[in-house]
């Protein structure tokens, strides 16, 4: 097959590589000339994706994969077009479709009959049918269901392990017609491999959910569940601390039977997915009080962590405080919706002098994010661990000379090492 992948980001590029690895001719489209040049030079544009560099070195020289900024060089004559353009959401749960609208119009300008179009970007329920279908038809002059088919098939992978997750989880599809869905099932079976899983109600593979709306909701539901679960864990943690109870011991005990699976509490919920997709759900279902309460509970955790620091340390005005971790989670160089921003703001609101450290970021990169960088070995009065980087597991008072107080927002350090220092974690007395 000839396949076009639109947007060569942290999901789109591994997808393009996966499709090419199955023997298909793949052209990736991206608005970033630097990313396009790097792909064509068989160089990964971003670090940290397992096996990506190796696969690029195999596929690009073999002519299976190339990149371009020109839709006209990728879309016409394609058997399938997969679109993974980012969708942004503001704090009021309003989606900003700007980038996706532009990509869809460019796609429509070059769409030719016989093409399957699959959107993988997470969307509010109904978007595929009510926004993308009429836009593609208007721009292309073609008719969906007759000249081309349109489906929604959400990505279900984590950056850093995309190829592993593509095999592990069922590929969900939902069409606007049975014919479109059948073509999507055929397409994804031709470009993906699946691990055997005996724990699923049906064989692992491509699952047709019956409609684009069901497929859209499935993606929102699986991620919103995680946000709600973490919100519950955070509320349990805050209450347990007032009662002298170790919430981690309680969670371990509770999860020892199969009817409970409580997640772990923590200082923040970040990334492109968990804090964002509940907002997409709320956009269509504003009466979802449980979802809204969980989102508010999780958004308030950086402030809560700084309150813990203030309770243990005393007034923070004039204090030198280090926030450890700019990334939203350990081992991932990404700050989307990271708790670092709210943590730094809360500390500055109390008059603290704040610096930020992250082993994945240079001082220049931290400064570009608006942070004063911190170098281990420099003196500070207090610290807050915001990201669970593996490097912080061996953190000790000697790393931060003069430290009096530590709040471990991710429970990664050894409390015994911090004897003599004011030490607090979320959910422990």
Summarize the structure in words.
The chain is of the alpha/beta class and 429 residues long. The chain is 38% helix and 14% strand. The chain is built from 14 helices and 15 strands. The protein has helices at 12-21, 33-40, 52-59, 98-110, 127-140, 162-168, 178-191, 212-242, 247-254, 277-284, 289-299, 301-313, 339-349, 363-368, and strands at 2-6, 25-29, 65-68, 80-83, 88-89, 95-96, 116-119, 149-152, 171-175, 206-208, 320-324, 353-357, 382-385, 405-408, 422-425. The strands form three sheets. Strands 3-2-1-4-7-8-9-10 form an eight-stranded mixed β-sheet, with helices on both faces. Strands 12-11-13-14-15 form a five-stranded parallel β-sheet, covered by helices on one side. Helix 1 crosses helix 3 (52-59) and helix 12 (301-313) packs across helix 13. 47% of the residues are buried.
Write the layout of secondary structure elements.
Blueprint: E1 2-6, H1 12-21, E2 25-29, H2 33-40, H3 52-59, E3 65-68, E4 80-83, E5 88-89, E6 95-96, H4 98-110, E7 116-119, H5 127-140, E8 149-152, H6 162-168, E9 171-175, H7 178-191, E10 206-208, H8 212-242, H9 247-254, H10 277-284, H11 289-299, H12 301-313, E11 320-324, H13 339-349, E12 353-357, H14 363-368, E13 382-385, E14 405-408, E15 422-425
Parallel strand pairs: 1-2, 1-4, 2-3, 4-7, 7-8, 9-10, 11-12, 11-13, 13-14, 14-15
Antiparallel strand pairs: 5-6, 8-9
Helix pairs in contact: 1-3, 4-5, 8-10, 8-11, 12-13
């Amino acid at each position: 097959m000839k396949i076009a992948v639109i947007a060569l980001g942290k999901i789109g590029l591994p997808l393009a590589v996966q499709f090419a690895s199955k023997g298909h001719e793949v052209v990736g489209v991206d608005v970033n000339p630097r990313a396009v040049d790097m792909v064509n030079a068989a160089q990964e544009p971003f670090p940290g994706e397992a096996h990506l560099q190796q696969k690029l070195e195999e596929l690009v020289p073999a002519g299976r994969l190339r990149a371009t900024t020109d839709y006209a060089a990728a879309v016409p004559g394609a058997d399938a077009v997969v679109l993974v353009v980012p969708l942004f959401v503001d704090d009021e749960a309003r989606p900003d479709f700007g980038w996706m609208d532009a990509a869809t119009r460019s796609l429509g300008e070059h769409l030719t009959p016989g093409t399957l179009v699959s959107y993988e970007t997470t969307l509010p329920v109904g978007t595929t049918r009510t926004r993308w279908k009429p836009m593609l038809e208007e721009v292309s002059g073609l008719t969906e269901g007759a000249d081309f088919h349109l489906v929604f098939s959400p990505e279900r992978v984590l950056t850093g392990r995309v190829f592993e997750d593509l095999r592990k989880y069922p590929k969900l599809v939902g069409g606007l017609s049975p014919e479109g869905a059948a073509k999507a099932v055929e397409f994804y079976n031709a470009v993906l491999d699946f691990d055997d899983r005996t724990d699923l109600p049906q064989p692992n593979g491509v699952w047709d959910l019956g409609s684009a709306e069901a497929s859209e909701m499935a993606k929102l539901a699986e991620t919103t569940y995680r946000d709600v679960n973490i919100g519950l864990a955070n509320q349990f943690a805050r209450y347990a601390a007032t009662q002298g109870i170790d919430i981690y011991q309680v969670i371990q005990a509770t999860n020892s039977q199969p009817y409970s699976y409580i997640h772990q509490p923590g200082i923040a919920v970040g990334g492109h997915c968990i804090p964002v997709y509940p907002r997409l759900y709320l956009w269509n279902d504003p009466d979802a009080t449980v979802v809204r309460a969980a989102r508010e509970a999780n958004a308030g955790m950086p402030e809560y962590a700084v309150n813990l620091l203030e309770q243990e340390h005393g007034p923070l005005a004039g204090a030198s405080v280090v926030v450890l971790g700019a990334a939203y989670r350990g081992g991932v160089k990404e700050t989307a919706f990271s708790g670092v921003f709210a943590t730094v703001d809360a500390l500055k609101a109390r008059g603290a002098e704040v610096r930020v450290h992250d082993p994945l970021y240079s001082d220049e990169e931290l400064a570009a994010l608006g942070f004063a960088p911190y170098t281990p070995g420099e003196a500070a009065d207090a610290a807050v661990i915001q990201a669970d980087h593996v490097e912080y597991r061996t953190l000790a008072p000697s790393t931060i000379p003069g430290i009096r107080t530590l709040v471990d927002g991710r429970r990664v350090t050894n409390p015994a090492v911090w004897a003599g220092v004011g030490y607090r974690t979320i959910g422990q007395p």
